[in-house]
Design brief:
The protein is of the alpha/beta class. Helix content is 23%, strand content 27%. It has an eight-stranded parallel beta barrel with strand order 1-2-3-4-5-6-7-11, surrounded by five helices. A six-stranded antiparallel beta sheet has the order 9-8-27-28-29-26. A six-stranded antiparallel beta barrel has the order 14-15-18-17-16-19. Helix 5 links the parallel strand 6 and strand 7. Helix 1 packs parallel to helix 8 and helix 10 crosses helix 11. InterPro entries: Pept_U32_collagenase, Peptidase_U32, RNA/ubiquinone_mod_enzymes. It comes from Candidatus Alistipes avicola. This is U32 family peptidase.
Length: 604
């Protein structure tokens, strides 16, 4: 059977535990340095504790070393990689090919930062010993199918969360505006800022809009199609999100994946344990800029969020009546006192709190900007947030127990749903029980009390002579037996695919330009060994990005504003994005349905 994995983010140890408890099959977590989220770093000790907690359930943990490396950092990166391996991580997620050349005794996953978009790239990475390829977010289902047909490597894709509008690993917009580089884990998110769209004559077409900000991804309704297309790992974005987001979104995708697996008998989940949330998961109630399936069904308009890059939450309704202190909506709703609401005005996104609800009438803390026709969103659900805060969902592994009694000993054996077992024995003199039936009931009751362990003892069998066993001894045998079973689970090997690099594999291109960002000698040697003849100095090493492509993307501003060049646009000539002293020429590659930003800023 093919295993399917729900892969969840872990900012720190607390979120790692929450991701496991609420149903993840694997975690991805950053070390102290060299991760694509510099604000989500962790010590080796924290990662080791997360590994132990995860491995109890067969949950894998992947460490992110997915930034570019400079020559002076290679030794530090090797040292951190080896420390993470010693801590027990199951794989490293990497961007820089220097790590492929370090002969590390660990499974390697090709980060989405390698811009994994084509069958040729995926096949090359497979031949170079990567056990998994993490796909670019902008791919369509048809493109994913073509990649699957070309190779056998495991494929992972993002299904939920923020979208990088530029192709991953090929965006230098942050670097063009500051010293902060997304390829070095410090993106300043300039794609969420406002820009003016200006034509070649200097006329402003759109002013002060969030022209590069796209809605968040939600592919929860397409999980089954992705399984059928060959995806084996479903990734939730969010290593900077809070615990409420983790609990809610992980629980929701656990339900969606389990539903898809239930009608696909050739597939199974990748870890063990039951997580039944004590609330109803709803991703619209956690951080979201609005939902989108992005380009899953092909390139299309309607994925942008020009008005705001902020979280708007769930749509509640449209205002149909307004008075001096309140308003009414066109739909039934469950808004409550203490909820947070927001709405768009000509000045941008405005938020306020709900003071009171009287039937259909809502009384907010402030009325400025609320008028008939305004769409109201709830970005804070007081009752839902309280339910998340109170939630103490416990992930448990079903277990059966067997007690074998004799005059000289009591043997208790625990066996979990995967067949892992542990046995404990107590020697002694055990008299006949005066009431054998009551004794059997006592044994069943005591051995079923799994408490706050990771197990749920659901059935107890008693065999042998009917003997009296003190309750205190049964409790001790239960505690010792379940701990021994936990240790046995930790000792179970988890499959690691440490694969060799095929030096004969040819890279799909004979040249690498500056935007493909080779920044150290080991990476350069790797590519030359695989047939690349010309390698430009990586753009992150340059003092300026002026004159270079700082973003390549499947997203298109022309398409969003109804001015696609394939459809007889009346907007002719060059277009530019302008923000203060920063100026970017837009280049439209209609043959590939892509847009590029060329840095034309005047830095003099």
């Amino acid at each position: 059977m093919k295993s399917i994995e729900l892969l969840a983010p872990a900012r720190d140890l607390a979120s790692a535990i929450a991701s496991v408890d609420y149903g993840a099959d694997a975690l991805y977590m950053g070390g102290a340095r060299f991760g694509a989220r510099v604000a989500a770093g962790n010590t080796v000790e924290q990662i080791a504790r997360a590994v132990e907690y995860a491995h109890q359930y067969g949950v894998r943990l992947y460490a992110t070393l997915n930034t570019l490396l400079y020559d002076g950092e290679l030794d530090d990166a090797r040292r951190q990689a080896n420390e993470l391996i010693a801590a027990g991580v199951d794989a490293l997620i990497v961007q820089d090919m220097a790590l492929r050349r370090m002969d590390l005794p660990v499974e390697l996953h090709s980060s989405t930062q390698m811009c994994n978009r084509t069958p040729e790239q995926a096949l090359f990475l497979e031949r170079c010993g990567f056990a998994r390829v993490i796909l670019e977010r902008a791919l369509s289902l048809a493109e994913i199918r073509r990649i699957r047909a070309a190779c056998q490597v495991d494929l992972e894709c993002f299904v939920h969360g923020a979208i990088c509008v530029g192709y991953s690993g090929r965006c230098f917009l942050s670097r063009s505006m500051s010293e902060r580089s997304g390829n070095r884990g410090a993106c300043s998110q300039p794609c969420r800022l406002t820009y003016d769209l200006v034509d070649e004559k200097g006329r402003t077409i759109l002013k002060g809009r969030h022209l590069l900000s796209v809605r968040d991804m939600n592919l929860s309704m397409r999980v089954g199609e992705l399984i059928d297309a060959g995806i084996t790992s479903f990734k939730i974005e969010g290593r900077l999100k809070d615990l409420g987001y983790i609990k809610n979104v992980v629980s929701y995708y656990r339900e969606q994946i389990d539903r898809a697996l239930a009608v696909r008998p050739d597939f199974c989940r990748a870890s063990v344990g039951e997580s039944i949330p004590d609330f109803r998961p709803d991703p619209s109630k956690s951080f979201t800029r609005g939902e989108s399936e992005y380009f899953f069904d092909g390139r299309r308009a309607g994925v942008a969020s020009f008005d705001t890059p902020k979280a708007v939450g769930e749509f509640i309704g449209r205002v149909v009546r307004v008075d001096a202190r309140g308003f009414q909506l066109d739909t039934q709703h469950d808004l409550a006192s203490g909820d947070g609401i927001c709405f768009l005005t000509t000045g941008g996104l405005v938020g306020t709190n709900v003071n009171a609800v009287d039937g259909c009438r809502v009384q907010p803390n402030r009325m400025e900007g609320i008028a008939v026709g305004v769409e109201i969103y709830r970005n804070f659900d007081r009752y839902f947030a309280a339910a998340l805060e109170r939630s103490r969902t416990r992930r448990v592994i079903p277990v059966e127990a067997e007690a074998i009694l004799s005059a000289e000993r009591v043997v208790v054996r625990f066996t979990d749903v995967e067949g892992v077992s542990a046995e404990v024995v107590s020697e002694g003199a055990f008299d006949k029980a005066k009431n054998p039936q009551k004794m059997a009931e006592t044994i069943a009751t005591q051995l079923s009390r799994s408490g706050d362990t990771i197990f749920d003892v659901r059935r107890v069998h008693t065999s042998g002579e009917d003997r009296f066993v003190p309750v205190s001894l049964l409790a001790q045998l239960r505690r010792d037996g379940l701990e021994k079973l936990r240790e046995a689970r930790l000792a179970c090997p988890i499959e690691h695919r440490i694969l060799p690099e095929d030096k004969r594999a040819e890279y799909p291109s004979e040249s690498l330009v500056a935007e493909e960002n080779v920044t150290n000698r080991l990476a350069e040697k790797f590519y030359r060994d695989h047939g690349v003849q010309r390698i430009e100095r990586g753009l992150d090493l340059s003092a300026t990005t002026v004159g270079h492509t700082v973003m390549r993307t499947a997203y298109c501003i022309r398409r969003e504003i109804g001015q696609c060049l394939k459809r007889n646009s009346d907007l002719k000539g060059d277009l530019f994005l302008v923000r203060g002293r920063f100026r970017y020429r837009l280049l439209f590659d209609c043959a590939h349905c892509e847009m590029c930003l060329i840095d034309r800023s005047d830095r003099s």
